């Protein structure tokens, strides 16, 4: 079945917008070519779910965002998120554009670049062009193509060779105007032997109509570099969130993904590490809480090309009310990736008889000399455990929440950033209606 | 007020099969009652039914704790009313630490706004753990996860000591314990003896009763209490087994609800 993608913008308007922003010609051309592809390609295929039935048409249109005069002008929710974490660097996108950029002078002096992607394409084209849309290509499917056509704001983070940054750099992506296109693109390039931690939050506020977030993340980790990428999505129910994350790893490079999926609306996310280099490693931790009548599709992938490459993927998801989740783990080991090791675990805890969860561990292995393993489980809160806790005077609600937090704890307790851990804990509580 | 605990004509089924066929028992604060009997006679069912285990359905009878029928209560309300069951097979709960669990249990009694301070709680817990010769690291371990049989039993006693219940039911607390652990557990129970508190000790060995002297001994068979007496009854059971009671009462199969 061919599903025609209805394009939210036509070529003339896209071209005019790109030109009005004084984007380089190569980017204007790339946007236009991508738009054309978007009209031809199929939608991404989700396992057991039909994305064409979701609200993926609410792109709105580009609206200029006013720069913040001061961080004091931030909406309260965002202000809270960035409290006490401004010292490294901070990029804030509001709807279609960036409203704040800052970076500690000592990091800038070391050659670290942390700015919005729209600025970077102009000021650092030589560093952006070789990478943009290379990990997530614009011909993968119509949503990737459409993203490449309309992306706005975004983040560009560049860490030079041998530079180790020990404070996390932070970004906040805020959607609070349903008429404005919200399509940030995050591009991270970590040069050889560098180290960086990046944390972002996707939030929305006071939306009065549906919004489609079509987002992309590309991370390039060079030889021996280490990137820790943490992302928390807490978009309200008006937002349909489709996010593709890709990391490309060279020799001995490593990435650690920490993803908190706390949206209230339909969500598809696909987080993939491409382990090209020998000795490269990927560790992905996903925690998720689904509620209401959310439809959810989380995919975590590791593609091994390099010898002795290692991947670890853990997803723990709690589904309440009528939330329906499909959780896929795909470990692919290509021929020649000898001594590769791929491990994955997906666990789903269902809190109501109407909640649904499917965990699909998939191992695709074309090489003999490898180790790989998977574990998956889907279950309900154990009645015996609830009884035991209640027999000590703990109410049913508290007993269940202790069990739920206990279920998430093995992942949450491994999160290396204390602030993020606390934030996730709070979000879990909110999502669980406590 | 002295505690009064009365079981009247208690009947209970599991999956439609009647296991308790009318239990009658009365105990007061300060008393220790032992329920003995061979395996499969309904002893553990009695413990579970009193606490409100969801697998058991109570079909008849009353269980009054200070004139309030606990059968009308949810499991947590029974606990708050003063009932405590040290379980034969406590659940293991990953991700919930022993100390978080205990603190939640204590705070459930104290109510919102009156939570126990962390310092006070830790001091109390460490003190009780020392009495029970428990390794302090158990406070931070996940609840019962990877605990040996003996460690789980000590952990049950620790909870009993911290929660200060009115009626304590010990379900086969002695099974799987070596002599040292048995002595420690018994000391824990003896230290908790008080005029305000009643104990119901379920066991099929007499050896626990060498350490905890019961005031009353009841024998269960076929889902009923078939004989009651003083401590001398336990001694006779230890010496002669149960056959004489079966003979006396004309019972051939003492078990209940078991498929032939």
Summarize this structure briefly.
The complex is a heterodimer of chains A (434) and B (260). Chain A has 434 residues and is α/β, with parallel strands linked by helices.
Task: Give structural attributes.
heterodimer; A: 434 residues; alpha/beta; nine-stranded mixed sheet; 10 helices; B: 260 residues; Rossmann fold; six-stranded mixed sheet; 12 strands; 28% strand; globular
Protein architecture, described:
The complex is a heterodimer of chains A (434) and B (260). Chain A is an alpha/beta fold and 434 residues long. Chain A has a domain at 11-277. Chain A contains ten helices and 19 strands. Chain A has a ten-stranded mixed β-sheet. A nine-stranded mixed β-sheet of chain A has the order 3-4-6-8-10-12-14-16-18, covered by helices on one side. In chain A, β1 (89-94) and β2 (97-103) form a beta hairpin. In chain A, α1 runs antiparallel to α2 (25-40), α2 (25-40) runs antiparallel to α7 and α8 crosses α9. The model of chain A has no long low-confidence stretch (mean pLDDT 94). With 260 residues, chain B is an alpha/beta fold. Chain B has a domain at 4-90 and 166-249: Rossmann fold (3-Layer(aba) Sandwich). Chain B contains eight helices and twelve strands. In chain B, the strands form three sheets. In chain B, strands 6-9-10-3-11-12 form a six-stranded mixed β-sheet, with helices on both faces. A four-stranded antiparallel β-sheet of chain B has the order 2-1-4-5. A two-stranded antiparallel ribbon of chain B has the order 7-8. In chain B, α5 (149-163) packs parallel to α6 (179-191). The mean pLDDT of chain B is 93. The chains are: A alpha/beta (434), B alpha/beta (260). Chain A binds chain B through residues 382-385, 387-396, 398-399, 402-403, 405-410, and chain B through 51-54, 74-76, 78-80, 84-85, 87, 90-91, 93-96, 100-101, 104-105, 108-109, 142, 159, 163.
SSE topology:
The complex is a heterodimer of chains A (434) and B (260).
Chain A lengths: L10 H10 L4 H16 L35 H7 L6 E6 L2 E7 L1 H5 L3 E3 L1 H7 L1 H4 L13 H9 L4 E5 L9 E7 L9 E6 L4 E10 L6 E11 L4 E9 L4 E11 L4 E8 L5 E9 L5 E10 L4 E10 L5 E10 L4 E10 L7 E10 L5 E10 L5 E10 L2 H8 L5 H17 L5 H14 L3
Parallel strand pairs in A: 1-5, 4-6, 5-7, 6-8, 7-9, 8-10, 9-11, 10-12, 11-13, 12-14, 13-15, 14-16, 15-17, 16-18, 17-19
Antiparallel strand pairs in A: 1-2, 3-4
Helix pairs in contact in A: 1-2, 2-7, 8-9
Chain B lengths: L3 E11 L2 E12 L3 E5 L6 H9 L4 E10 L2 E2 L5 H7 L1 E4 L6 E5 H13 L7 H14 L10 E2 L5 H15 L3 E5 L7 H13 L6 E6 L12 E6 L2 E6 L1 H10 L2 H7 L11
Helix pairs in contact in B: 5-6
């Amino acid at each position: 079945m061919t599903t025609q993608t209805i394009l939210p913008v036509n070529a003339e308007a896209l071209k005019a917008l790109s030109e009005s922003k004084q984007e380089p010609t190569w980017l204007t051309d790339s946007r236009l070519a991508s738009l054309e592809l978007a009209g031809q390609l199929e939608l991404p295929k989700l396992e057991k779910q039909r994305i064409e039935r979701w609200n993926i048409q609410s792109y709105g249109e580009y609206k200029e965002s006013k720069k913040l005069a001061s961080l004091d002008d931030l909406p309260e929710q965002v202000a809270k998120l960035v409290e006490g974490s401004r010292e490294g660097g901070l990029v804030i996108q509001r709807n279609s554009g960036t409203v704040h950029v800052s970076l500690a002078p000592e990091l800038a002096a070391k050659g670290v670049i942390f700015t919005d992607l729209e600025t970077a394409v102009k000021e650092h084209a030589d560093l952006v062009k070789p990478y943009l849309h290379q990990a997530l290509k614009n011909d993968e499917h119509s949503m990737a193509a459409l993203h490449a056509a309309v992306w706005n704001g975004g983040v560009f983070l560049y860490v030079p060779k041998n530079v180790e940054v020990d404070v996390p750099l932070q970004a906040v992506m805020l959607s609070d105007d349903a008429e404005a296109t919200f399509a940030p693109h995050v591009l991270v390039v970590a040069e050889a032997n560098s180290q960086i931690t990046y944390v972002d939050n996707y939030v929305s506020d006071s939306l009065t109509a549906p919004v489609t977030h079509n987002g992309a993340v590309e991370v390039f980790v060079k030889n021996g570099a280490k990137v820790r990428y943490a992302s928390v999505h807490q978009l309200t129910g008006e937002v349909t969130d489709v996010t593709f994350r890709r990391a490309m790893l060279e020799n001995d490079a490593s990435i650690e993904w920490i993803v908190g999926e706390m949206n209230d609306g339909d969500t598809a996310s696909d987080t993939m590490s491409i382990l090209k280099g020998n000795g490269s490693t990927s560790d992905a931790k996903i925690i998720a809480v689904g509620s209401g009548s959310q439809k959810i599709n989380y995919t975590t992938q590791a593609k091994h090309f390099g010898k002795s490459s290692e991947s670890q993927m853990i997803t723990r998801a709690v589904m309440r009310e009528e939330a329906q989740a499909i959780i896929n783990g795909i470990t692919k080991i290509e021929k020649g990736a000898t001594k590769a090791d791929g491990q994955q675990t997906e666990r789903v805890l269902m809190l109501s008889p109407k909640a649904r969860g499917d965990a699909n561990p998939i191992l695709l292995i074309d090489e003999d000399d490898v180790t790989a393993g998977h574990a998956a489980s889907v279950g309900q809160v154990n009645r015996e455990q609830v009884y035991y806790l209640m027999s000590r005077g703990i109410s049913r609600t508290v007993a269940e929440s202790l069990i739920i937090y206990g279920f998430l704890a093995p992942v949450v307790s491994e999160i290396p950033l204390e602030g993020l851990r606390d934030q996730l804990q709070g979000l879990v509580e909110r999502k669980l209606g406590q | 007020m002295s505690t009064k605990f009365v079981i009247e004509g208690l009947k209970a089924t599991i999956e439609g099969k009647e296991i308790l066929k009318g239990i009658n028992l009365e105990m007061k604060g300060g008393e220790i009652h032992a329920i003995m009997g061979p395996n499969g006679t309904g002893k553990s069912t009695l413990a579970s039914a009193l606490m409100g285990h969801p697998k058991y359905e109570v079909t008849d009878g009353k269980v009054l704790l200070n004139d309030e029928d606990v059968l009308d209560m949810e499991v947590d309300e029974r606990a708050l009313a003063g009932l405590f069951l040290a379980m034969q097979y406590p659940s293991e709960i990953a991700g919930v630490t022993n100390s978080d669990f205990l603190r939640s249990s204590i705070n459930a009694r104290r109510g919102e706004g009156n939570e126990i301070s962390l310092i006070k709680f830790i001091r109390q817990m460490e003190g009780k753990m020392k009495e029970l010769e428990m390794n302090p690291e158990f406070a931070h371990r996940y609840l019962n996860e990877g605990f040996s049989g003996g460690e789980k039993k000590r952990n049950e006693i620790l909870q009993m000591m911290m929660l200060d219940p009115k009626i304590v039911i010990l379900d086969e607390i002695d099974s799987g314990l070596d002599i040292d652990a048995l002595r420690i557990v018994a000391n824990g129970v003896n230290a908790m003896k008080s005029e305000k508190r009643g104990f119901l000790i379920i066991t099929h060995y007499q050896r626990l009763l060498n350490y905890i002297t019961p005031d009353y001994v009841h024998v269960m068979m076929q889902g009923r209490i078939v004989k009651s007496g003083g401590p001398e009854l336990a001694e006779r059971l230890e010496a002669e087994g149960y056959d004489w009671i079966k003979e006396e009462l004309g019972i051939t199969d003492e078990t209940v609800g078991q498929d032939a």
